[in-house]
# Entry
Amino acid sequence: MTQDFMKDRPIYLQLIERICGDVIKGNIQPGDKLPSVREFALDAGVNVNTVQRVYKELEMMNLTETKRGQGTFITTNDDSIQHIREQMKEQVATQFITVLESLGFSVTEIIDLLQKKGGK
Amino acid sequence: MTQDFMKDRPIYLQLIERICGDVIKGNIQPGDKLPSVREFALDAGVNVNTVQRVYKELEMMNLTETKRGQGTFITTNDDSIQHIREQMKEQVATQFITVLESLGFSVTEIIDLLQKKGGK
Amino acid sequence: MTQDFMKDRPIYLQLIERICGDVIKGNIQPGDKLPSVREFALDAGVNVNTVQRVYKELEMMNLTETKRGQGTFITTNDDSIQHIREQMKEQVATQFITVLESLGFSVTEIIDLLQKKGGK
Amino acid sequence: MTQDFMKDRPIYLQLIERICGDVIKGNIQPGDKLPSVREFALDAGVNVNTVQRVYKELEMMNLTETKRGQGTFITTNDDSIQHIREQMKEQVATQFITVLESLGFSVTEIIDLLQKKGGK
DNA sequence: GTGGTCTAGACCACT
DNA sequence: GTGGTCTAGACCACG
# Structure
């Protein structure tokens, strides 16, 4: 197919999603310290500035808190975390439905497919 | 929310989806002529170049055929249309699951939400 | 005095404030196009990336809207603008009071001073 | 709001302000001994170096005097204290007006708000 | 020509 | 050593 609906997403968005996902899944706990920007950058093989952007966005989402000179930590405010989880679920679902309908698919038709795929 | 996962889709992709959707839904029939690029651009309020790109991509997807001096027409090859429909369904579902899982949601959890939203 | 309470603010924050101020004052009208990032950078004598950061923040504040390939425009949503104006007023006043009180000044005492200074 | 105008003030500045405020308010009297740097650091939950910097700045402002082997004391020179008080009032007011005007607010408009808030 | 993303590398403030 | 700011310059997507 020549057209790739939903193309390559920017690195920084992918990283944000990954961290959000890890928090939601519990892989990272409230209060945990994230790696330093430099360490993270090295691990992920990206530039330090890219990571700094990620950390800044996370803080603006209230998912993290920054302690100057100490590092970046997952918020201990569980409400913030739940809030983000719900926001994201809502958002993902809504946009998915939008795309679906613009393509002429019914929701039930796709749910069938998801159920098959989800079982694998 | 500061981060909008999955927004900002290019205009030309949105237009492609819209046309694909219209074909799948039957709003546009095989053999139908699409508006001229200029007319379409005017209607949609976008740049002529954008429409040209859309038409080019549609042709590469075998959804349309171009007759020089006459215009662009939806293919009369029903297999092509069905093929595109299935491709797109697959692709949409697969990428949706990818995003879901990277965010830590289960497929069933989202299906529940889709079912509620789909009913409206 | 050795201590300068309220030090040098980052350039990008100063630029954000300047633009917000210009919008609030009406120097820039809803719908107006902002200079391109390159042009603005040249004018202000700062780096292009700095301006891009400014434009991005402004968009996240809903003060501007970006049209891809066309430029950045002040939102035509007057509510957004009023909202930002009120937010900023509230914020400025609140933080001012906080500083005041931490320094042991009464609000009335400072109001007197402001009134004298404001008259000049 | 994504942008917090005037936040993120360095800890050591906050501490200086707090101590200045306590002196102005009379919570701390001329001649009083300040806690040792270690004790203060422990109390405030900050780094010892930070407190050392605070004490150093206070001494340069002539608000405190250091007696070797005994500790740091608030100056008994009332003129120094009054002087600092006036300096700070001036400075706070001036910078506040600067910010206000750069944001397009009138002084009277903010005075109204301050009066409402100050009454609480 | 428009904004968006990313890199490399510098310097600063805070702990 | 931590994050924050800024620069210079590259490349990409979009119109």
User: Anything to note?
Assistant: Chain A has five helices and two strands. The longest helix of chain A spans residues 78-102.
